[in-house]
Amino acid sequence: MKYSYRNTPALKCIEDLSLRTINISDLDRENIDIHQAENSWVNKAHLFAQNIYTFTSPFFKAMYSTGFKLLSPEITMAIPKCSGTLILPKEKSAGNLVMRRFVVCFNYQGGDSVLEMVVFCDGVLILYATKEYSFYTQNVKEAESFPLEMARIIVMSLAFFKFADIEIKYVNGRKKFHDQTCKYVNDTNQDIQIMDCKWFTTLVHSDAFKVSGHLRLQPCGEGMKDKKLIWINEFGKHGYTSHFKRPINLDEVT
Questions:
Q1: 8 vs 211, more confident
Q2: What is the mean pLDDT of residues 71-78?
């Protein structure tokens, strides 16, 4: 996987504190006030640069398909303030995100505060929603649900970062990183964090009754006052489970 200013131009906009190099569709040129967007961006770009995240494709696919169950008031109210950028992988099975590279810049102030976000799709600005200025493209399929979907992805990701056992791989600016499954090349000046989780790499072999995999906000810590998000893998009541890597012993939850 390669990250460059060419395939992820939003990173150049963050570095330059400017939207001058970003593309805008012909249909949207009459609808956007680029000067207002630029003025707002100058004030927000340093927030979007604080944490730049991306995901391994298996993790994002699994999180996207199951993580929306997390969005309860209890979870969202516990997520701390956070600002940064999400580089979403091109995932064939992730709803409307089919084979496109979405870059989602966000400023989340926690709880029920206003969520600010700027979304780029394949290098084109399609959504700008901050306190200073708002713009929304006419080109997005299922346009009415798209901003909500992006907001849910942001909050869902932050919930995983807060409560789950996340494995982080760091690819600093102008560096390369290899693991067993992928080679990462970062040709930008921005440090990128690759988020992964091994919850979803467990095989179940059982002829007995199966309990579907599900998420649980598990009490933990001294006096059970803290909470931690865990994934309970699908398991058979009277079968056996073979793990590649597992974050939790099934005997602890049955």
A1: 8
A2: 79
Residues 6+ apart with CB under 8 A from 188: 3, 4, 5, 8, 11, 12, 15, 173, 174
In the chain, pLDDT over 70 holds for what percent of residues? 79
β-strand pairing of 192-196 with 52-55:
parallel
Whether residues 178 and 57 fall in one domain: yes
State how far the Cα of 53 lies from the Cα of 97, in Å rounded to an integer: 17
Q: How far is CA 32 from CA 38, 102, 171, 250, in A?
A: 11, 19, 34, 53
Residues 52 and 176 in one domain: yes
**Burial class of 99 by CB neighbour count within 10 A (0 to 12, 13 to 18, 19+):** exposed
Query: Listing from the earlier edge strand, what are the strands of the sheet with 167-171?
Result: 134-136, 124-129, 115-121, 102-108, 82-87, 52-55, 192-196, 167-171
The boundaries of the domain holding residue 50 are 2-197
Task: Give me the helices (H) in 118-177, please.
Answer: 146-163
Q: Quick one: average pLDDT of 15-25?
A: 92
Q: What pLDDT score was predicted for residue 236?
A: 66
Q: Are residue 123 and residue 17 in the same domain, yes or no?
A: yes
Residue 199 CA to residue 99 CA, distance in Å, equals 24
Tell whether the model's pLDDT for residue 252 goes beyond 50: no
